[in-house]
């Protein structure tokens, strides 16, 4: 599917998400954050890879915290509790394996 086939949807206050591509095995999602936007703490069975396209974020991962900025990337293991605070407006590109069916329209 092409990016334009997926709507941009609210994903919390100051946060939107848009599925960019998907298959049963892999999904790519763009998350756009306004400064102060939050990704609430959560966990899921999917392995997640996050690339910071722009902005600056404080991430929380299994009880630790770290800051990331444009060009940084990291992997979140399956089942790990994680979330983030947006310190400077920006965009995260997340890949999930397998696909996050809950993100499909």
TrEMBL record:
<dbReference type="InterPro" id="IPR013096">
    <property type="entry name" value="Cupin_2"/>
</dbReference>
<dbReference type="InterPro" id="IPR025499">
    <property type="entry name" value="KdgF"/>
</dbReference>
<feature type="domain" description="Cupin type-2">
    <location>
        <begin position="31"/>
        <end position="85"/>
    </location>
</feature>
<protein>
    <recommendedName>
        <fullName>Cupin type-2 domain-containing protein</fullName>
    </recommendedName>
</protein>
<dbReference type="InterPro" id="IPR011051">
    <property type="entry name" value="RmlC_Cupin_sf"/>
</dbReference>
<dbReference type="Pfam" id="PF07883">
    <property type="entry name" value="Cupin_2"/>
</dbReference>
<dbReference type="InterPro" id="IPR014710">
    <property type="entry name" value="RmlC-like_jellyroll"/>
</dbReference>
<dbReference type="InterPro" id="IPR052535">
    <property type="entry name" value="Bacilysin_H2HPP_isomerase"/>
</dbReference>
């Amino acid at each position: 599917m092409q990016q334009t086939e997926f709507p941009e949807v609210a994903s919390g206050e100051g946060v939107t998400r848009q599925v960019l591509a998907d298959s049963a095995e892999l999904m790519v999602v763009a998350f756009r954050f306004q400064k102060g936007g939050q990704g609430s703490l959560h966990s899921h069975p999917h392995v997640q890879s996050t690339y910071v396209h722009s902005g600056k974020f404080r991430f929380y991962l299994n009880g630790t915290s770290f800051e990331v900025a444009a060009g940084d990337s990291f992997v979140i293991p399956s089942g790990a509790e994680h979330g983030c605070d947006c310190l400077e407006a920006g965009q995260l590109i997340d890949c999930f394996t397998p696909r996050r069916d809950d993100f499909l329209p």
